[in-house]
Design brief:
Elements lengths: L8 H16 L5 E6 H4 L9 H12 L4 E6 L6 H6 L15 E4 L2 E5 L5 H4 L6 E5 L2 H10 L4
Parallel strand pairs: 1-2
Antiparallel strand pairs: 3-4, 4-5
Helix pairs in contact: 1-3
């Protein structure tokens, strides 16, 4: 779970690594949960997190790569129709940064993108053995 995935070279490397892992491990499943508003920013021009990750879903199928978007329930109706990108994010964002690998959970206060991580210390709290439980609960939290 993260706010969004950028579309620069660093993030392209992450997507390539995911594709390589999916190719080499036929039983691997990847679940990605992003904030809907932030992940769709720039989608009309093809420069969104969703557009960047869509080829993984297309190549490996939605049974192996599940891209889920959390949308705040506070943005709906007239407000949703009139607020443009970026301004609609003021209403609410899912801002958690949680990374699950097998049964390991890492909670961190900032993303791993180089320009953000270098000027400040990246605080990560690893929790071994609780990733499966947390992952099941988060993925069950809403419909796909």
């Amino acid at each position: 779970m993260s706010l969004y995935l950028g579309t620069a070279e660093h993030e392209a490397g992450i997507v390539r690594a995911l594709a390589d892992a999916l190719r080499s491990q036929p039983d691997l499943q990847v679940d990605i949960v992003l904030d809907c508003l932030r992940a769709m920013r720039g989608h009309a021009s093809g420069k969104s997190s969703v557009a960047f990750l869509a080829p993984l879903v297309d190549q490996f199928g939605p049974d192996r790569v599940r891209l889920r978007l959390f949308h705040t329930p506070d943005l709906h109706g007239l407000l949703k129709r009139v607020l443009p990108d970026r301004f609609n994010e003021v209403v609410g964002l899912q801002h958690i940064k949680t990374y699950l690998f097998d049964d390991d959970l890492i909670l961190t206060g900032c993303g791993c993108v180089t320009p953000l991580a270098i000027p400040r210390q990246v605080v990560a709290n690893p929790h071994a053995g609780c990733g499966q439980c947390f992952g099941r609960r988060m993925l069950r939290a809403g419909p796909t």
